[in-house]
Amino acid sequence: MGSAAEMDRRLRPPPTKGASSVARVTDDWYIACRSEALSGKKPLACTLLGIPLVLFRDGDGRAHALLDRCPHRNVPLSLGAVRDGQLECGYHGWRFSGDGACRFVPGLCGPHEARGRRVEAFATRELDGFVWVYTEADREPVREPFRFSLLDDARYTHVPYSLDLEGTMHAAIENALDVPHTAYLHGGLFRKAGGTKNRIRVVVRRYHDRVEAQYLDEPRPPGLAAKILAPSGGTVEHYDRFILPCIAQVEYKLGDDSHLLTSAAFVPVSDFETRLYSVVSFRLPLPGWLVAPVLRPVALRILKQDAEMLREQNAMVHRFGGEQYISTEADVLGSHIMRLLRNAERGEREPSDEPWVKEGELLI
Amino acid sequence: MGSAAEMDRRLRPPPTKGASSVARVTDDWYIACRSEALSGKKPLACTLLGIPLVLFRDGDGRAHALLDRCPHRNVPLSLGAVRDGQLECGYHGWRFSGDGACRFVPGLCGPHEARGRRVEAFATRELDGFVWVYTEADREPVREPFRFSLLDDARYTHVPYSLDLEGTMHAAIENALDVPHTAYLHGGLFRKAGGTKNRIRVVVRRYHDRVEAQYLDEPRPPGLAAKILAPSGGTVEHYDRFILPCIAQVEYKLGDDSHLLTSAAFVPVSDFETRLYSVVSFRLPLPGWLVAPVLRPVALRILKQDAEMLREQNAMVHRFGGEQYISTEADVLGSHIMRLLRNAERGEREPSDEPWVKEGELLI
Amino acid sequence: MGSAAEMDRRLRPPPTKGASSVARVTDDWYIACRSEALSGKKPLACTLLGIPLVLFRDGDGRAHALLDRCPHRNVPLSLGAVRDGQLECGYHGWRFSGDGACRFVPGLCGPHEARGRRVEAFATRELDGFVWVYTEADREPVREPFRFSLLDDARYTHVPYSLDLEGTMHAAIENALDVPHTAYLHGGLFRKAGGTKNRIRVVVRRYHDRVEAQYLDEPRPPGLAAKILAPSGGTVEHYDRFILPCIAQVEYKLGDDSHLLTSAAFVPVSDFETRLYSVVSFRLPLPGWLVAPVLRPVALRILKQDAEMLREQNAMVHRFGGEQYISTEADVLGSHIMRLLRNAERGEREPSDEPWVKEGELLI
What we know:
Strand content of chain A: 25-35%
Number of domains of chain A: 2
Oligomer: homotrimer
Largest sheet of chain A: 8 strands, antiparallel
Number of strands of chain A: 19
Shape of chain A: elongated
Structural class of chain A: alpha+beta
CATH architecture of the largest domain in chain A: Alpha-Beta Complex
Distance between the termini of chain A: 57 Å
Radius of gyration of chain A: 24 Å
CATH class of the largest domain in chain A: Alpha Beta
Helix content of chain A: 10-25%
CATH topology of the largest domain in chain A: Naphthalene 1,2-dioxygenase Alpha Subunit, Chain A, domain 1
Order of helices and strands of chain A: HEEEEEEEEEEEEHEEHEEEEHHE
Number of helices of chain A: 5
């Protein structure tokens, strides 16, 4: 009979060459929650990059983020209460201010503050209706969060949504910015599989902190979503864009009348859990109140199909113990996004004015 | 306080000496599915030896088996569709022929076929109403699958059934061919515990690819099933048989009138999951249409008791991190089956005409 | 892309310094079950220190404890039956006496008893309505179990209860003997947070097998439970006590009329599962039949709050891969209990007459 080690070695398919698109860029900002989700009365638990955090507001309404673990007996601080602008643990009543310092230890006769009683604190920003957190503890941020543009432009209608996805943040972002899958996974809703194809040019421009694909001479695609977007047909100006560490943008323009910008902030909740906060901002010949109710169910169905496929991909990757991907020229942005993420993980984001540029072709 | 390593070391019972009856004979055939389960329209997922496979039929209706993972982005190909006799991935629409070659990459302007875009293919055979798969990828089979005999003999009635079991394939096969447990686990249904016992002779014959136990001078056992089998009593001719890599047979004869052969093909779905495809073929003094409805509920109840015991055994083996078995002369075939499986794992199945023979005794 | 090893490395919060309050004192006694739970007809499965045990009564009604794994094919013996005062396995019918010896192997023609067919046996005692088991196999106990006192004193009313907790035995015992958390976790029920506090003296006395905290000059605390306990107010005599390996006692006295002793035997079911068997014994100015129905719901609510907090603590400790606790003078007994447990794990319990004594202060 075999050895005991064999026992734990669940039978597996032939192992992959071993690769994973997990990326952990920690010296940057991610959305922790919507502003409205964080009341002034109760703390809120959230997870970023696998780190359990507790959010709360002080007496001035400022949001703070601490490690969600009491230094005393390690229970989640998010089970506690906000008391006089401080966070009180629900087990023994220890209290912490927004900077992580311990201010009160019930029962104790000596001094209450002590270095060992601190809890790690994370920088926060509240912008565009979101609370952002910088994911290095007790550090001054070296940059500021991404801003959702167009929110103040009265000509635009804004449709927000959020979603939880299974899979790495990279897999989710590649999916969001990928063109060819739309004809298959979303066939009929977005682009159609089969039929006559157009050979179009794609220009990729990679900067130090972002990469962009511009699709030239793209005809209005068939499908329901495209009809809403561009009722009169014509040539589409189309950009897909990734911005470090977690932003995906899809932008469509048709002349001066039609403009649609989807900005999605992805959140690496943990290595294989990704949350998505997205805002679709558009300006169309039709009034926004008319378009939004039509656009929403189509967008939700597309998102649901993507979420399901990412879930299946993630499960198969785990079953094989890693990724083993093959790419072609039709995978326009995935490898560039990975390159930017890996550089950022190593702290390499040297600014440069000149982008790296490459032109290719795609059948759409 | 203890070390962090201790943290993960869940408290365990005293460890076993470390043994496992997991066997992975890969250069052989296992049943992937019933023929009728594989339509010409949809692919079908199945798992053999832990390897996720996708089955589909080409334009001529021939069954093919590929690794169930698209080489592009690793999603299960079984989520896709059969298109023009090829398998199309549901994510980006890549298409594969039955030999695993990539035939089409949507969006791509260059050539579509490339060595790196292949998916591993497994040989298949369709026989006796089952699709068999050879579990070495991209290899010519060195032997052919087991054939269910008697299926064409009009004098026999055939009752098929299948079942999912928890536990190693060896544990399931040993259980299927074990005599003493029937008086306890199936007490009353099959053989009775206690009461007067008969001392009978057992002859074990081990060949290069099989092992057989012949029970001599065995009286008709008491119990309901035996009464159906041999209404007029008499001496039973009884064989229990294992054939590499996964077949268990139990055969009973009473003179010329009564003959019952149960052939079970076990499938090592993974190390500790075993599926069973079985056919009971019988010829009795009573007509088959009368016996089958009586036989089926008794057989199902026996199988359910065995499945439950195997599940408990498997759970306890995992709790201890391995098997620690003690055998006696009453465990007639288990160790011989293990020996054949271990030899087959190492590729050692040298044919020889002369069997290894041993005679023993058993109280039944 | 990263390495395959990275794949399994689920994203984690910054690791703790690595500590765990798991303690495995094996040369001692734990409660396996209540006497009434072990009938003379059926075996009973239970787990102590992660070891699966089967309990059964022999022909004289004596309780026995064996490892719950048949040495033959490793199925749980607790699935079997008690036959003529012996334990019979439900798979093949092997039979064992209370000392673990194999007495019968069905089907076997040779001798039935053999050294290799033994199953490990554990010493038992039946006392105060509980079955205790000594957790070293095949060993003479070096001490006797803890006795619940006062059970025979007719002046006392006794209220038993039991509960399953998630977390180490140490975490559960520290919680049971901790004073400061009562004002927060059980605020209102027991002690009140905020308000005027009394500075009281605490004397800790640590012996070779126990540690005790005596609270001096403690006023009757506010809160409902305290009102029931001491309707006329006054100064409370209060002791919190830990006795190796698993006993926690909380004792309150008010003059000659009122006395309440809670004795809890904790059971380390596994490293992070702890069961509690407790008896509250009290003598009060009010009749017991009047007090018990009021006391019980309050006690149950307190226990439920503790169980929930221990569960959250345990989950967070696992999320971080270990404990990282900071203690203050207000954590009166926790570190002493840990010290006694660690010494006992190493077999160090040298008796000494003189306790180690320390005096401190606490605000209550």
